[in-house]
Design goal:
single chain; Glutathione S-transferase-like protein; 2 domains; Glutathione S-transferase Yfyf (Class Pi), Chain A, domain 2; Glutaredoxin
């Protein structure tokens, strides 16, 4: 049995996992989970992932959710080397920090806006949410200062996450001209 990825195509975390799969040359069966139809709350899905989030990866009897954990697992299990998730403790610490930044700050800002637009049908993004998003993008902009990628001169799994999240956030909160490093990064 091969890899199975439960996904929704527009999700930045799903896109991050797909980038990792592609980079590793791996194929997966894709199963769409329709969040708007609340399929993530079905008994079948909750057995896989009690947090009812996407993406969720099945690899035989292993079930992993959270795109950051999935990508770390994929590189560790299937990577030919450690370039995408370096083993050097100092380099890995920086990659891990950026992954935590993505989940705790950048994606949190995006998720907050996305929930209001897609699930609460709000037409306008509140100014406080725009401010939070811009603060998160400011950090990402600083991380790229003097670097080609988010932690240095080579890309890694932190780039997959931050690239997909930041590009979605910029689409919702325009103003990319304020972020020349991000503009080059995209």
């Amino acid at each position: 049995m091969g890899l199975i990825l439960h996904e929704i195509i527009a999700s930045p975390p799903v896109r991050a996992v797909k980038l990792c799969l592609t980079e590793l040359g791996l194929e997966a069966e894709y199963k769409t989970c329709n969040l708007l139809a609340r399929e993530q709350f079905s008994d079948e899905y909750l057995k896989l992932n009690p947090q009812h989030t996407v993406p969720t990866l099945e690899d035989g009897d292993l079930i992993v959710w959270d795109s950051h954990a999935i990508n770390a697992y994929l590189v560790s299990a299937y990577g030919k080397n450690d370039a995408l998730y370096p083993k050097d403790p100092k380099v890995r610490a920086l990659v891990d920090q950026r992954l935590h930044f993505d989940s705790g700050v950048l994606f949190s800002a995006l998720r907050n806006i996305g929930l209001k637009i897609f699930f609460k049908n709000e037409k306008e993004i509140p100014e406080e949410d725009k401010l939070r998003a811009r603060e998160a993008l400011d950090f990402a902009e600083k991380f790229l200062q003097g670097r080609k990628f988010i932690t240095g001169d080579t890309y890694n799994i932190a780039d997959f996450s931050i690239y997909t999240t930041a590009s979605a956030l910029v689409a919702l909160v325009p103003g990319l001209e304020k972020y020349p490093n991000l503009a080059k990064y995209f």
